[in-house]
Amino acid sequence: MAQVDADQESHEEHEEQKPKIATRFMLFTAVPSWLISLVVHLVFFLILLTIFMPPVKKDKRTLTINDSADAEEIEELVMEEFEPIDEQTLEFDDPPEQPEEAILSDEIVVSEFQEEMAATQMVELSDFAEETMPFSDIMSEVAGVDGNATSGRGQATRTQMLRENGGTGASEQAVVWGIQWIAEHQLKDGTWSFDHRRGAKKPGSKDWGSFGDSPRAATAMALLPFLGSGITHKEGKYKKQVEAGLGSLIKLMEVRGDTGSFREQEGNMYSHGLATIAVCEAYAMTQDKNLLGPAQYSINYIQAAQDPVGGGWRYQPRQPGDTSVVGWQLMGLKSGHMGYLSVRKNTIAGAIKFLDSVQTKNGAAYGYADAGNKPSMNAVGLLCRMYTGWKKENPALQQGVKDLGARGPSLGNNSDMYYNYYATQVMRQYGGPEWETWNEKMREFLIKQQVPQGQAEAGSWHFNGPHTERGGRLYNTSLSLLTLEVYYRHLPIYKASASEEDFPL
């Protein structure tokens, strides 16, 4: 009986569906045949497109921060020393101590590189274009060492250049400890601050800088000693710290069109020059395409910010220049030169025009914004002259080096590390007895003035000289390290004879 009822209900449902089916059939037959054909072909086309279309690849627009590394890995990172120096020829005063663990205890987050910075699509790199610095000028050979101007930073050549150019095991150990201090004061977001208390791992931090809101300048100054010793985001014992620092610095770049600015309120164009040097050196050392866009954009900004009348740079874009700011911008352009980036000839010609306007003693001395004779500006001006083509035999260069040698390094508690940094580069590039005398005084002073291991702020330096109030211990430590890295940081401009002009004119 139940089966009969079920059959009856099924028959009734079927009878009810007949009108609906008939209606749908009528609608279908009412559709024109051409429309049915179009729909069928469209569906078939979409199926074929899905089968044969290659997968979409995402553009790499970011400087990746160790995709495979998590916060736990970074916490376990051990800050080891550099590769061992040849102890048969370089003796340490004291045996190296075991460094402590790194402080990066949280995951470092760096936002994606801005859309308009796609290097391979928006910046055309040409090694041999007319507007690009000549390849031959930045190639060098030192006792069988070939490469660009940063080639001395590699482990294979650093020991050789350290020994041949006046470094010692003690000076290199000071570099090891100084870089460790900088690494210990990196913030969790990858940046550094001149107010280094914010990232201090150890208690008792002191002598911080007042410019606590200039992350671009502080991060750049922190990165330069790593790069100066051959440590990049690709290799080296501190590559995670460098990678995080570069990523955070690029995140802070402000892009407009084909220019990228690192200028900030406290550091103004100083910040931009320093950051340009850091990014361009990292690119020159690694040829990482993710750095090509930021490096070229920072060079473009320097060129756009140049004073169109006097040829210099100062605090604001296109403002009449001063020698101090000009020095950092020109070194930024030089760093771009090392990476074969595009630097316009008229930019260098403008910088030379500015240097001519502030020189005295036929070019042996330099003023700040007007013609003068100020020791720190003399050092900046002479180094700029070396990099813009003055030959070693130039009488003004010879006189300038003689004057720097007679004055000697700035020593004591009030040491001016800005002057020492630039002047040491001038004397190192010039070489000879003047350099040997200068180097012994400068090197031994810095080794003795470094805070010893076991004390608060171990590995750092602090002097009461110019700019210290703003930059504090990080500023002094960075310049001290760069001064002690002078033996291998750049290959010599002058070889057996005078070099050709380094920048195109």
UniProtKB/TrEMBL annotation:
The chain crosses the membrane at residues 34-53. Keywords: Membrane, Transmembrane, Transmembrane helix. The keyword Membrane applies. InterPro entries: Terpenoid_cyclase/PrenylTrfase. It comes from the Bacteria. SUPFAM superfamilies: Terpenoid cyclases/Protein prenyltransferases. This is Squalene cyclase C-terminal domain-containing protein. It comes from Bremerella volcania. The lineage of its organism: Bacteria, Pseudomonadati, Planctomycetota, Planctomycetia, Pirellulales.
